[in-house]
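Researcher: Hi, I'm a grad student and pretty new to this. My advisor asked me to get structures for two proteins we've been looking at. I'm not sure of the right format, so I'll just paste the first sequence and hope you can take it from there.
Model: That works fine. Here's the first sequence with its structure tokens right after it:
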Amino acid sequence: MRIFVLLLALLASAFPAQAEAPNKWREDALAFPEVINAQYAYLDRLAGGRYQLTPKLQAEAESVKDDDSLLTFAERALFLLADHHAITDASFEQSWALVPSYSDIWIERKDGRYIATSVRQQSPAELGGFKTGATLITVGGQPISDAVDAFWADLGVKQITDDQAGYAARILAAGRRDRPREIVAQNVGEKSRNFVLPSLYTITRDTAPLRLFFDGKTATIKFNDSLGGSDTIAAFDEAMAQLRPEQQLVIDLRDTASGGNTTVARAIMGWFVQKPTSYQIHRSPAEEKQTGIARQWVEQVLPRATKYHKGKVTVLVGRWTGSMGEGLAIGMHSIGADVRGDRMAHLLGATDDLTLPNTGFVFKLPTERLYSVDGSPRERFVPKSGL
């Protein structure tokens, strides 16, 4: 017996157990807070000025083992920021819909009630009879307050603010991407009713970058969530060529929820300036943290050769004016346009694609703070009331 045991020991020493293979997915999940704390431009919104996982999400990070579990974890971990501008690059068919791009009811919690403070024009919600001012009662068959509490409890968060409540309610009302939504709500002065609404991911949209309309002396250019497409520049130039030099113009940005890029925005603004004009201020907190030296710069729009319109310009905005739509709105305001409508989406800053080191997993995070030229944060811009 002793000889057998000794033989086993000799074999074990000759053939040591293979070391456990590194788990690159787990390593990236555990690195998530470090990346956010290094790059996120709005840490001051968070308790203690730092991002940290709840114990529940920390345990989930520890158990990540493949692409799907990393994506599941990342989607949930980003919810802790309560920032609609922080999203994963990939998604599942059943992932929650992106707000505001694929939402049509803007919800805020006021005095314990969940109120639809805005409804997207020509959306399933509006066409189905959902009205601004409606009180939400249930979502997915669950009382809205319970559903919101459950959303946060599932992430390990117990106490929430009104801002966190509104954030979750907007996601819940936008629903899962692969299924219809069922919402019970009560419009002002009406009885409560059940709304069954399709996911906006199943809705066919107008594919033209924009539409031009004439109403007497006024021309209106309405964008179809197209501020990220290069064909939008040509379409805008073509529309502007049909206007008289001094014609009153309305630029409708109320359907620009998905944002875009500064090339398109500067091409539009270039029609309304005759010299280089400042329109937005950028600040990079990440660079300041890394180097100890603050960095801030002003972005300008330049005139476009042979393209200038001197007529009065009014810009219409609302809750589905998001990201670059908001940048274009404050830019037009800085060069003299009259900006009117509802508060915008208040998407924070400018986003970058961040890549986790071991898996190449990509997520988008606001890394720059953005300001109007007067130094006020872009997300606090308040348009004039009335259309």
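Researcher: Oh nice, that was easy. Here's the second one.
Model: And its structure:
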Amino acid sequence: MATALVTMSHSPLMGFTEPAPATRGRVDSALADARAFVADFDPELVVLFGPDHYNGYFYDMMPPFCIGAAAESIGDYDTTAGVLPVDHDAAMAMVRAVLDADLDVTFSERMYVDHGFVQPLELLLGGLDRAPIVPVFINSVAEPLGPPRRARLLGEAIGRYATTVDKRILFIGSGGLSHDPPVPTLEGAAPEVAASLISEGRRLTPEQRAARQMRVIQAGRDYAAGVSTMKPLNPEWDRNVLDVLAAGDFAQIDRWTTDWFTEQAGHSAHETRTSIAAYAALAASAGQYKVTASYYEPIPDWIAGFAVTTALPTSSVVAA
């Protein structure tokens, strides 16, 4: 058994709104380094922690966590549509391991995922079909949300499961950091918006989906131009979170609150829970770890505090 980690921010605006060339160059360089890291590790199983943006999960049945035993990408924002190569046996063994750890988790034989899952597969592995996957959904948008420490508990349970598997396992956390994009909320929503959040969003026509995506793209352009009322990015908060994750200070993470995330970094900063889970999984599977690369930059054009990190067990770094 060997484990490794990559975390990265994602954004539906990548490819639709462009930051300054120098910024884009630094992002591309960080992603190229992460791709090389993944290729060198050569994972036999990828455990991908990701969120959803009311594309696969709705309020008619909103779980805090879900492990996919089969999954399909909807192909939003020009990401690849199609079936993911889910390792069904590994997924179900993981479900049992998490339940045995006294943590409730749902599972799905027909999980639908969006760009939050697919972008890292495309950017880090080169496509959907490059390695067996177990997708792990962490609700990061639909309130009410549990405390962030529950993501740590989920990651720990999955990390302990990894110690029982004789494979090279890559943990990926997709999401975060500070950002507050125009994602609708159920409380106070107009009837037609509420209906889309409860279930009708599953049945969007291609024209309705295109219009929805265009609204987000325009919001990104307005934000980058400084003519938006959306919450500013918070680089100080972002860097602190990255430092705490790098240090493996899970005691501090357990003190973080849902309200603190929202107030300091915006509603969608809760996607950082995917990174918490991934780092907790690495720690539970391998003990101490070392961050081998860390890139961060606030990118208003993508409405994102954008980060890419890689990490290995300390024993692997020393051995190398």
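Researcher: Is there anything I should tell my advisor about the second?
Model: You could mention this: The mean pLDDT is 95.
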